[in-house]
Amino acid sequence: MTWLPALPALPVLVTAGVALHAFRLRRRLAPLRRVDVAGRGGEPLCWDGTRAAGGGDEPYGLITVDGAVLSGPARRAAAAYARERGLQVLDLVPADLPVDRAFDLARTVDAAAYRTDPVARGRGAGFATIVDVGLLERAGARAGALDAGEYAALTVRLRQYAEQVPDADGTAFAADLAVVPCHTTPRAGHCRARAAWLRGLGVSVARTVGGSMLGYAAVLAALLSDPAWGPVAALAYCAAPYAVFAGTPVSPRDLHSGALLRLVRTPWTWWRTLTGPPSAYDRRRAERVERARRAYRPDLAQGVLRFLEPRRDDCPWCGSRTLRKLLTSGDVVQAKPGRFTVERCGGCGHVFQNPRLTEAGLAFHHRDLSDGLGAEEFERLAAARGGRVHRARAELVAGHLTPRTWLDVGAGHGHFCRTARTVLPGTAFDGLDLGAGIGEAARRGWVRRAHRRPFTEMLDDLAGRYDVVSMHHYLGRRPDPQAELDAAAKVLRPGGHLLIELPDPGSRLGRRLGRFWPYWLQPQHLHLMPMGNVDKALAARGFRVVARERRRAGQGGDLVGTVAVALNAVAPPPERPWSVRPPRPADRARRAAGLAVAAPLLLPALLLDRLLVPLVPGTSNAYRILARKDEG
């Protein structure tokens, strides 16, 4: 007798899913190399602090998580490995990393792309890192031992400062991971400050544990649904550690027990991860949120309606008075208070926010979006989108010219400039943005010069200086897009090129998904311009369009973004410091319920985004225009 109706296909599907996932994780770890510490005593890395750290005159500093100590022979071998390969950052992976920690490493690190992806997030095993002292100074960091969360956050940051270096196979960056032979102690257990470590890496603890729970639940459902084939799925789940790690440089010391007891140990791992005491890193994060909460109180007390201008009755693009309400939306990213109406012009098709945010309103809704509390999430999303989109932009320009100078307007933290340099290594990239991230981009070396002023106020300084000006999802965020185009025309040299990328208000999916379509992006997008309108505006300023892209300009993520927008609308994060009231148990329960409903939808949404949405006829969610400024 079974507890669930017989579902013969379920065990087969679950077994196949487990096997494919194990194969994927193995491929991610397979490229890892080992540091040779032959004849060095066999125990170069330990956890309990019983060995003294080795020194030396190498130009590398050592950063470790609290309690981890690198022996002298191991440190010298790691420094020699880094120096021989021109590395500035080398994360050291203990060879006998515990199974659960090794699984986390495989999930967060793609070893094959770690050196070649310009905007890859810094990741590691969470034990020790060898770092060039010059890079440490530029990053404003010091060698030493750190709390697990602080160490993880610094791991991310150091990778961002690694310089581009020549490589036999193409572009590479001076950061990598390598396995060190060692004997870690039981005190190096996986759950020790795991939550803080994941948060420091920018990895959602809820998504990590929730994903594990979903996989575990699928295995249990297969086991209970079919007495003959169900145990095969359970066996595959328990054998996964062997499939992932056997024969790789990572050889977990608890491989056998981790496999045999996996069905028992996994729930225990969830419990210890979710109930562990807060670390120093967590407490400092909580203090930052509380300071932000106090800073938001005066704005919230005065109400947010004051952040809206009077409603206008004509189109800001063509002046037509035939306006039609398109949708009403809240703040889809941060869930700050306020409701925003988007209208469409019946004359030219221009889509715009009406009434529009004032300058004070823009500042309120941009605060902690890409800087401050939102900086880590913004960078994570920029890196996740990274390679494909950024490279496509640069390759479009490279097909028409090889620019000497390029200004990226609305550069954010400089992710596009970092990637574009791999396509156009001889081009000097400057960045302009109103946020603090542009200064960080300059410190990292992602941009040559950083300008932190409104574009329209810098014409005297920048006139005629650039071969290319790019505006990626920038025009729609500015109150007067036409003035921004005027400024671009003045900044470009004769014969220079302007690259524009914008969300497409004509997207068929956008119309079907309504206010939950992520690319309406309220309240950040004040304007959404049809491609034809931008073409005409460019022609009026002496530009000639030389290339247009729609499908290739698509950002992807329509359906995944829709799930995220709906989740934020129905169950926003209760701890957000701009909430009009402190978080209540009911708010936390609603968020938990929302996450439980959204989690099973994300995988189908992701698959549909990748496999089905590109086949939908009509426009994509964005378009790209490259236009040449006429000579003279």
Question: Can you summarize this structure?
Answer:
The chain has 632 residues and is an alpha/beta fold. 43% of the residues lie in helices and 16% in strands.
What is the beta-strand fraction?
Answer: 15-25%
Total number of beta strands: 21
The Rg value, from CA coordinates, equals: 26 Å
What are the low-pLDDT stretches, counting only 5+ consecutive residues below 50? Answer: 39-57
The assigned structural class equals alpha/beta
What is the terminal-to-terminal distance? 85 Å
What topology, given as strand order, has the largest sheet? 16-15-14-17-18-21-20
The CATH architecture classification of the domain at 372-557 and 618-629 is 3-Layer(aba) Sandwich
Q: What profile does the largest beta sheet have? A: 7 strands, mixed
